[in-house]
Amino acid sequence: QVQLVESGGGLVQAGGSLRLSCIASGRIFSINAMGWYRQAPGKQRELVAISTRGSSTNYADSVKGRFTISRDNAKNTVYLQMNSLRPEDTAVYYCNAQITTRDYDALGYWGKGTLVTVSS
């Protein structure tokens, strides 16, 4: 099986910073795209940032210039550095990874989420 575990969420004041981490473990053959999504109360889950195995990245317009996604492929880990946080960034942040398992199944996996709360 494959597990994704996020960490790094918490409470921060507007203008502050947080760094989220997500570690993938289990029967992993290779990891393709890794990314972060978020879901605010009463809203749909939305893409925040994504990184392909080739290190190309894509960001939601609302976070461009403030958030940076990075990966450590040797550690099966993806990070999200969040700067200049705003109250509207408050949400549960989920890690997602497109993984080829050792059984050669290509599947998408989700972490359980980590809560980020930005106070005004």
Secondary structure elements and their pairing?
Blueprint: E1 2-7, E2 10-13, E3 18-26, E4 28-39, E5 46-51, E6 57-59, E7 67-72, E8 77-82, E9 91-101, E10 106-110, E11 114-119
Parallel strand pairs: 2-11
Antiparallel strand pairs: 1-3, 3-8, 4-5, 4-9, 5-6, 7-8, 9-10, 9-11
Describe this protein's structure.
The chain is elongated. It has strands at residues 2-7, 10-13, 18-26, 28-39, 46-51, 57-59, 67-72, 77-82, 91-101, 106-110, 114-119. It is mostly beta strands. The protein starts with a strand and ends with a strand. Helix content is 0%, strand content 62%. The mean pLDDT is 96.
- Name the helicity range: under 10%
Query: What is the average of the pLDDT values?
Result: 96
Rg estimate, integer Å: 14 Å
**N- and C-termini, Cα separation:** 41 Å
N-to-C SSE string, H for helix and E for strand? EEEEEEEEEEE
Largest sheet, strands/sense/barrel: 7 strands, mixed
**Cα shape:** elongated
Oligomeric state of this protein: single chain
% residues in beta strands: over 45%
Number of strands: 11
Tally of individual helices? 0
Uncertain residue segments: none
Structural class designation: mainly beta
